[in-house]
Design brief:
InterPro entries: Methyltransf_25 (IPR041698), SAM-dependent_MTases_sf (IPR029063). Keywords: Methyltransferase, Transferase. This is 23S rRNA (Guanine745-N1)-methyltransferase. This protein is 26% helix and 16% strand. The strands form two sheets. The chain has a five-stranded parallel sheet. A two-stranded antiparallel sheet has the order 1-7. The protein has one domain: Rossmann fold (3-Layer(aba) Sandwich). The protein is of the alpha/beta class and 239 residues long.
């Protein structure tokens, strides 16, 4: 008996998650990069540890946020920093972040694969929170000597259980550590091979079954929605 669930990647409207097209669609749909599923993260976890480390180094500094999304995380540092610039490739995210900007917060739309659109040594601190790893090829140039570069990226074992529990709906994770290897390669090519790197694993609890679907279909849509058959029996009798 085949117990696999249907593979959503086979749908004609499926976009590869985190592709330029996928980010563009998400920007048009929601105007922000925010996870639609409900979950709870155990402490400590990489997200809270990363935020704590940023807090220690950005006070009164000129800061770059690489892959800022709609800018909520960027703007949260406004009261601490001298100036902060949020960079993202998706213009609809940037438009969402701009209207409520404090004076010391700005947003720039650019693709990091073309390099960072900033002057040499423009920033004291740069951080990359789940943003494009291609930025590591150029980020050293725009950070002052003695400045700090911080990064946080999904690990190779992210949600590893889901492909075992829901085969077909979630594809198996690739063998080895391809995410880590790509990250290390980018750091090395960007002159940052001496970077410290550690893995932080914790537990995320999805709150209800629908959150599994919300996670898998994050950022996906069709023109009118998912088409399913609507069927009724209509009865009419003359007595």
């Amino acid at each position: 008996m085949n117990r696999n669930l249907p593979d959503p990647r086979l749908h004609r409207d499926w976009l590869r998650p985190h592709s330029i097209e996928w980010y563009g669609q998400l920007g048009r749909l929601a105007g922000q990069f925010a996870y639609p599923w409900n979950s709870t993260l155990e402490e400590p976890n990489g997200e809270t540890l990363f935020a704590s480390e940023i807090e220690q180094v950005v006070r009164d500094k000129n800061v770059l946020d690489i892959g800022c999304g709609h800018g909520a995380f960027t703007m949260s540092w406004g009261p601490l920093v001298k100036q902060i610039t949020g960079l993202d490739v998706t213009s609809d995210f940037i438009h969402s972040g701009n209207p409520s900007c404090p004076a010391n917060v700005r947003f720039v739309t650019s693709n990091t694969k073309a390099g960072l659109p900033f002057e040499r040594e423009e920033f004291d601190v740069a951080y990359n929170r789940r943003g494009p790893t291609s930025a590591y090829l150029d980020v050293k140039r725009v950070v002052k000597e003695g400045g700090m570069i911080l990064g946080l990226h999904p690990g190779d074992k992210l949600s590893v259980e889901l492909s075992e529990w829901f085969p077909g709906l979630f594809e198996p994770l690739p063998p080895g550590t391809p995410v880590l290897e790509n990250l290390l390669q980018g750091l090395e090519q960007g002159g940052l091979g001496h970077a410290e790197l550690r893995n932080v694993s914790s537990i995320e609890y999805l709150h209800e079954p629908l959150d599994v679907i919300r996670m898998r279909c994050f950022g996906q849509t069709t023109n009118k929605g998912l088409p399913i058959t609507f069927d009724r029996y209509y009865v009419k009798v003359t007595v």
